[in-house]
What we know:
Number of helices: 3
CATH architecture: 2-Layer Sandwich
Strand content: 35-45%
Order of helices and strands: EHHEEEEEEH
Mean pLDDT: 94
Number of strands: 7
Strand order of the largest sheet: 1-7-6-5-4-3-2
CATH topology: Alpha-D-Glucose-1,6-Bisphosphate, Chain A, domain 4
Distance between the termini: 40 Å
Structural class: alpha+beta
Number of domains: 1
CATH superfamily: START domain
Amino acid sequence: MDDKIKFQLEFVIQSSPQLLYQYLSTPSGLSEWFADNVNSRGEKFTFIWDGSEEEAKLLKRKSDEFVKFAWEESEDGSFFEMKIIVDEITKDVSLFITDFADEDEVEESKMLWTNQVSDLKQVLGSK
Length: 127
């Protein structure tokens, strides 16, 4: 299997870290922007898009700071992480996305994240 490429994206989000975290860490929050529907049982999250389901395990989380998931079928150590960073001087809130994709799918994955975060901003009323 090809090694996946790690990539990171940053988005400035006009929101409090506490509110943003709710949209990153709860099934109801994630289903507002990330997937059509999200269910969870403990650490196991089921993401549903257009009738297809993907299972992910919640690896780590820290309240108001980050969530880290791994897709069930990924056996290569890849994960996706959504981290909230607050600039100490300006107090701007940024969302850092870390994800992995096959070399020929990196640009497509970045575009997908950009579109999804655009939906998140809309839900939050952020510009």
